[in-house]
Request: fold
Amino acid sequence: MDLGQRLAAVRQPWQRNHALLAIPVVLIVVIMVVDILAPSDVHLGPLLVIAPALTASFAGPRTTALIGVLAIAAQAYIGLHFGALFSRTVVVQLIALAVLSCLIVVFCAVRERKGRELAQVRSVSEAAQHVLLWPLPDRIGPLQTACLYLAAEDEAQIGGDLYAATRTENGARVIIGDVRGKGLAAVGEAALLLGAFRESAHQQTTLPALAAALERSARRYLPDFAPQDEAGESFVTALLLDIPDQGHLARMTSCGHPAPLLLGPGHTVTLPDLHPAPPLGVGAGGATPDDYTLDEVPFEPGSTLLLYTDGVIEARDRAGGFYPFARRAAQWTDSTPEVLLHHIRRDLLAHVGGRLGDDAALIALHRAPTR
Reply:
């Protein structure tokens, strides 16, 4: 962004606020003039408090205080015009207007401070998200990829859902998972599993061996993050994928995680039949590759694998109806991964009324057609 664009970005909100500032100023003038011209038994001066109250909705405490002073000055001028500036009625009105204006300024200052704190929290959570959930590249070998994360907590950009992908010698290895719980309390457990995946993904040759390694890490470290009243209740569902560059297959191992949707040309959607093992962290002891099943799923060129967490399929509307994920996704099977997730995000948030009850993550993996 060059200097001209930066100045324009700063100038636009400044101009908008100053245009809005004309509203309370004009309101003060109109109330003052009408009060002076109205019959003697009509008193509109108390309505001047509307001006600072209106200003607080779009401006800071200093501007609100200035409008409050103008409102008090207008009330004083009305009393002076009628020769009753020091009468009991006008003095009470002035005091009441001053007190109300001060309260509005205090409220405005508190709101502004809370806004700065919220912006700081969001900035920290964004930084944590970029450190923990590295953005997926647009392409991994022949795969076109896109990802989406929707946090349930307003203050957070990250929670208990996780995903990662890495390039291997012959293809791509991907994980998507869901930590028990949501929001910032689950971030530590998500970070633990992602670290274990990034370390083990290049050391284990098969997905069952990788799942066993992640299970051992989860059993060893997850209890450290659990509150005392929830000891032994921490677990993570995860889906592991190996997608070779050559061939038309995708290999999967599920640890209690839902199977992905397979989107094909012509608006076809299928749900692969997987054989899930228990979630990570609930095993009885040392895990071995024999505890996990390797499923192979056809993944033809032109198809898209849509991975997700249960925050998507368990999202409810106001009537309690679940989000019809497969039926809605079928509308956009011919879209690119980025466009597909854009449509799902908009449709999902519309279904729940703008706010999810649980964190949600999605990954779209599209195998480009061969030429």
